[in-house]
Request: fold
Amino acid sequence: MGTVSTFFFLFLLTLMVAPLIGPTQIDLGKALFGDMAFGENVDANILFLARIPRILLAGLAGAGLAVSGAVLQSLLRNDLAAPFTLGVSSGASLGAAIVISLGWSYTVAGFSTIPIAAFLGALGAITLVFSLARTRHGEFPTTVLLLAGVTANFFFAAMVMFIHYLSDFTQSFRLVRWLMGGLDIADYSTVLSVCPMVFLGFGVLMFVGRDLNLISTGVHSAMSRGVDVVKIQKIGFVMASLITGAVVAVAGPIGFVGLIVPHIMRLIVGPDMRLLLPSSLFFGASFLIICDTVARTIIAPVEIPVGVITAMIGGPFFIWLLKRPKN
Amino acid sequence: MNQPIIKICDTTFSYDQKPVLHSISMDVQPGEFVGVIGPNGSGKSTILKLLGGVLSAGPGNLLFKGVDYLNQNRKHLARSITWVPQEHSMAFPFKVSEIVLMGRHPYLSAFTFEGEEDIEIAHSAMERTQTLQFAQRGFNEISGGEKQRVVIAGAIAQEPEVMILDEPTSALDIKYQIQILNILKQLNENKNMTVVLAMHDLHLASKFCRRLVLLNEGEVFQDGAPEEVLQKDHIEKVYDIRIHLVRNQDGSVMISPDTLCIQ
Reply:
């Protein structure tokens, strides 16, 4: 448990430091205690309306993608599995694109249709890849899994392009803007829409942590130890889709976080999901907040999408994972 | 005769239309040490997966103490029956002690860590299998024979009444084969554990098992004491070879091919 709390403190630290960093220098004293109306207090406006919601969203997105990646890796018994590599993110994009292009993006009683569509898209993608890549013995060979993921990615991307092509100008613009993703459109309501999904998913997954450990050692062994494998697979895939859908619906597909974070955490805290899930949650949040801080400041005043930063780190990391010597 | 601890009744099983077992029936009595033998593809692994409850052939086919496997809670069944696979490929770097502790799963409720008692039980299971000295090493770093002992330690930690093992000795050298079989023999004799295992080595099977079930093309060809089952004509028919069979004083048999050519 010691290491998990280390990552919790790392998370708190990034949460406190990141709002102070940005292209515009802000005066913290003035922002917090400035003797003027909020509307006129530029420092407070930057801090509370621009930076903090964005950082919270980055934290939630990073936490969610990392948890979702950790679960997919254990269910598929493969450390190259992640929302991005399996086409789950692009499945979520397709779901959201369909809703946006049909003009069905409503919000009913606080529930927006976009995350629901993204959730269904993600779940569809997981189901597809799972059934394509599984052998008769319940294994998921790396090559088949990655090919199934690539296929799913291309297929969903093609469908999104098709929808894009059929859309009129306004819809097309909204779609492009959304597909580019990013955390720059964050406000507190987007933060609140993602928050329950990430924490619900995380809580449920923690509850079945030991079952997930056993499944990651093999389905038949898990069954013989008393795990209801089919039930746990369903719970795991639904929760991973729920989280990925919620994150992708507001932040767009951000690659590689779900691959890198659980992997690094496994090297440090080991493969036990009861430790891996919380440390991935905290480190995933810290990781994406740091990446986003870099994205906001590296060529300021221009902001680059955070997905560019994660991909620049994640691409080489993925190649290393694929080529590293196995024992 | 007592009520059988496990009963498989008139069970037929297919993988994707391909039939593997044809109306198999078999009783296992408490405390038996049963070897399942037969050529590759004769259905040994499948029958053991059915007995171990990791494959299902539908309702009414498998009974544990008279109750259908399917009518029992999975965790409850896991407290009575465990199944040990033939190969152990581990995708993630679990430690040996973690693998053994996973045997405690059927006794633990959701979202708990293993307690003092579980750690003690795992510890004595590792003692019994002589795996304690590498408890803190990675499962993927140890040898095949050590892995097999670790997985058996996990099965012992599960405290079952019946242990089903799919060819636990096939990938091992003679020293480890005997070591594993001795561990199982001690469990059988000292803890009255019912053991059902698949084997390829007919000599070792005749030496360690008190009952052998010879499978041929998905059917039970012979079922009985080793000296009844391991007859020259039975082996020649099922394995489709010509052999010399030498019977030792302890009842075990030595088998060597008659010529090096397969018929």
